[in-house]
Amino acid sequence: MTRQPCATELVVPDTLDSPTQVHSTVGLLSMSMDRVGCQEFIGFIGSAPGLSLLPTRLPMSDRVTVAHLERVQAYLADAIRLLAPGSALDVVCLGCSAASVAIGIGKVHEAIWSVRPGVRIVTPVDAAITGLKSLGTRSIALIMPYKPPVVERVRAHIEEHGIAVKFAVSFNLDGDTEANRVSEVYLERKIIEVLSRRPRVDAILIGAASLRSFSFLSRLERQMGTLIISDNQALAWRCSGLINPGRAIQDHGRLCEQPHPNGL
């Protein structure tokens, strides 16, 4: 059977959107083993208008130790190069508090700016600190899934920024494969226990992107009458605020309903 040639019609679009008509763009760097952070971030930021998300991954051992987290620094620049080269990025997020602190916030900025000079950068831990301060928080209880040395690094970073960590909970897990499997029912129960039995604090911080809280955070916050912030929620709030200052994300907890003051 003889194949007939296929005619190809060349049609050049007569209208292309200008860059200002394309949605604001957020690049999200997630740990390779994490199956929760990106989905929770999308859940919290989903109602933010005019936003386009570009996610990519950073190589990371499933054993979350300070040493393994420090090694992530070597992969930051290459990961940024994968995010729509030649197109503008409005914000870049490193979606892991533990890695941000282990590497050092300054070094995170240096690595990302080596590829994307001047782009705005958000880490969950500093987004959470910004949010806590904007709501007048002076003391927190910190809940994390990882081993105590990792928790201690994050605790120290938060306290260096003027917020007292009165109590910390470590689930003593090796890495994200286990952390992702911590049930929302268990995490909710642990938060209630901390608020009921431990020294009084202004807020609870769920300090890891690998822990699921989207389904209950807002409800439990209302039920307990205490501010509850998660890393993924704080990351979404900060990104939305940088892109749309003064606009709140509704129905996802008190932090998300807090507009960003000008210049924050």
Q: Could you describe the 3D structure shown?
A:
The protein is α/β, with parallel strands linked by helices and 264 residues long. The protein has two domains: 23-124 and 234-243, Rossmann fold (3-Layer(aba) Sandwich); 126-230, Rossmann fold. The chain has eleven helices and eight strands. A four-stranded parallel beta sheet has the order 2-1-3-4, with helices on both faces. Helix 10 (217-224) links the parallel strand 7 and strand 8 (227-230). The longest helix is centred in the C-terminal third of the chain and has 14 residues, at 184-197. The radius of gyration is 20 Å and the shape is globular. The mean pLDDT is 91.
Task: Give a topology summary.
Blueprint: E1 24-31, H1 37-45, E2 51-58, H2 66-71, H3 76-81, E3 91-94, H4 97-103, H5 105-113, E4 120-122, H6 124-134, E5 139-146, H7 148-160, E6 164-173, H8 176-179, H9 184-197, E7 203-206, H10 217-224, E8 227-230, H11 231-243
Parallel strand pairs: 1-2, 1-3, 3-4, 5-6, 5-7, 7-8
